[in-house]
Amino acid sequence: MNWTDIHGCFSFAEFYDFVASSRNSYAWRGVEVGALHGQSARYLAAALRRNLVPSMHARLDVVELSDNREILRANLADVAGTIGDIHSPCFSLQAATMYDAASLDFVFLDADHSYEGVSADIAAWTPKVKRGGIIAGHDFCHYFPGVIRAVLERFPQVNVWRGTEWPDEHVPHDWRRKAAEEDFRKRSVHGGCKDYLASWWVRI
Fold this sequence. Notes:
With 204 residues, this protein is α/β, with parallel strands linked by helices. It contains 7 helices and 7 strands; from the N terminus they run αβαβαβαβαβαβαβ. The protein has a 7-stranded mixed sheet with strand order 3-2-1-4-5-7-6, sandwiched between helices. The longest helix has 13 residues, at 175-187.
């Protein structure tokens, strides 16, 4: 099965290629929060396997609120050697309690997109990432101003990986979204957040 055969909104293949090729551990461990049907997890697991060298091990756990365990198992079957625990159905904050502090190389947040939800996820998962690891998330764009606000409140500087281009110049912006965009342009390493489904990331 190819990742394109799985339903989802995966727009960050190049970012996941970057993650897979820039591992900082020979026993790499990551968690994708908000796996849906496993489209992006399938891609990352395959990318990790392509980049493994002898004696290197990679494990990616997935968390999904919906009861998609069997769907995830089926869709991730051919990369099962790289997929670890499948937490489904499971709340993000509940899943975070299952990991020790500084035990993960990578966490990707793509669950609750509200300001409160993203803030809580960042607070719960950031301590789980070891020094040199990456915490990241999806939908850093003006369609989800709560994501932008929560990320910028927690981190003084963020990196943004372009997602699928979207002709958003004709979409009306309210003042809160405009303010969030302006704040982001001032503080981001890569200015601008006009991409649809862009991803944010921070190295701890």
